[in-house]
Amino acid sequence: MSRQTITRLIAAALFLLIALYLASVVPNTEVAWVSAILLLTIYLFSFEIVEVDVAAISIMVLLGLTSLLAPLMGLEEGLVSTRHLFDGFSSNAVISIIAVMILGAGLDKTGIMSKVAAFILNVGGTTEKRIIPIISSTVAFISSFMQNVGAAALFLPVVSRISARSGLPMSRLLMPMGFCAILGGTMTMVGSSPLILLNDLILTSNKALPADQQMETWSLFSVTPVGIVLVLTGILYFVVAGKFVLPVSKKEKRSVGESAMDYFKTVYGLDYALFEVVVPPGSPLIGKLLDDIEHDEKIRVIAALRGTDDLRIGPGSLARDVGIEANTVLGILASPEHLKEFVDH
Questions:
Q1: 3-class DSSP state for residue 274?
Q2: Do residues 135 and 159 make contact, with C-beta atoms less than 8 angstroms apart?
Q3: Side-chain-facing half-sphere of 140: CA atoms under 13 Å
Q4: I want to staple 184 with a disulfide (CB 3.0 to 4.6 A). Which of 20, 143, 200, 218 is the partner?
Q5: How many Å apart are CA 73 and CA 77, to the nearest integer?
Q6: How far is residue 166's CA from residue 121's CA, in Å, rounded to a whole number?
């Protein structure tokens, strides 16, 4: 049994004991069941027994099932009426958060984050005191228009790429990025879930207040001055005190002679390798264009040797509109699985 499994079992036992204790001191059965479900939710989120989204949906379904199981649970009625079970999806806050997550996924698909990494390297070079302010300010700006977690997750590949190219330990770049993602969310009303919820709460509270006592909601940039000050303070702190507070891991020190394959695996998680294949006479590849081959197969041809002296290296130097000839030697970048599929075809 692994250490993680043992930890989860011990935690489950502790949460169960807490639930039993609360059940003995709370005033009624409804509060006891609510406390138990709340503890179950905390346990699922804390120890990641299942995915977070699965845990959230499961708890919502469990609350709905209390209407059916009320007699068995000692309840007169369910904890939540089935009519109001999905009311959360009509909340402005929930829809805003979902929309911001969709925005983040769209930005990730466009490939714009790779260009951001290249820009940061061009401006900041490999100096930590120059790269940290640029990374922090950039992620803070992005975080001001999307959720903090989404901005940090979106920027992780950028930081990984910068770390791989500059040689700076990734741990010293992640902490400033993470904190500035949190602080950046305070620059607009859509960047922070608490601010969205608070604005929605004001709207809800106004319905129960007289017209002369109703509170005004905040506009998109109402909190911007406060957010900018917080972001600048955070960046200044990491620039000045980063030498003392940022972690350093010896395991992250990169070797000078690290290969391109190691770089691809570290930065992009691609377990690719370079292979050399010879096109034999009678092969179905003869006469096919490189573009057609790469379109049909999950490989990338990066070099080709035609005859004894016509060596072309690099995708840009290959004649992609000329058919493959017999006995051509191809340099291929691919995973072992994709190469096997290519050879079998």
A1: strand
A2: yes
A3: 24
A4: 143
A5: 10
A6: 8
CATH class (in words) of the domain with range 272-344? alpha beta
DSSP string, 129-145: HHHHHHHHHHHHHHHTT
Tell me how far CA of residue 125 lies from CA of 131, 205, 225, 248, in angstroms: 7, 51, 30, 20
Q: What is the pLDDT of residue 251?
A: 52
What is the Cα–Cα distance from 112 to 206, expressed in whole angstroms? Answer: 42
The per-residue DSSP string of 9-72 comes to: HHHHHHHHHHHHHHHHHSSSHHHHHHHHHHHHHHHHHHHTSS-HHHHHHHHHHHHHHTTTSHHH
- The 10s digit of each residue's pLDDT in 42-78 is 999 888 888 888 888 899 889 889 888 888 888 888 8
pTM above 0.85, yes or no: no
Listed residue (174, 196, 201) closest to 186, CA to CA: 196
**pLDDT at residue 231, as a whole number:** 94
Domain boundaries, the chain: 3-85, 94-245, 272-344
Per the prediction, the chain carries an average pLDDT of 82
User: Which two three-digit tokens encode residue 164?
Assistant: 């791989």
Check residue 324 and report its DSSP letter: B
Cα 213 from Cα 119, distance rounded (Å): 50
Q: pLDDT exceeding 90 applies to what percent of the chain? A: 15
Q: Are strands 329-334 and 273-278 parallel, antiparallel or unpaired?
A: antiparallel
269 Ramachandran zone, left/alpha/beta (phi>0; psi -120 to 50): left
In the numeric block, which tokens belong to residue 140? 């803070």
CA distances from 43 to 12, 13, 48 (A): 7, 11, 8
Element holding 305 (H helix, E strand)? strand 300-306
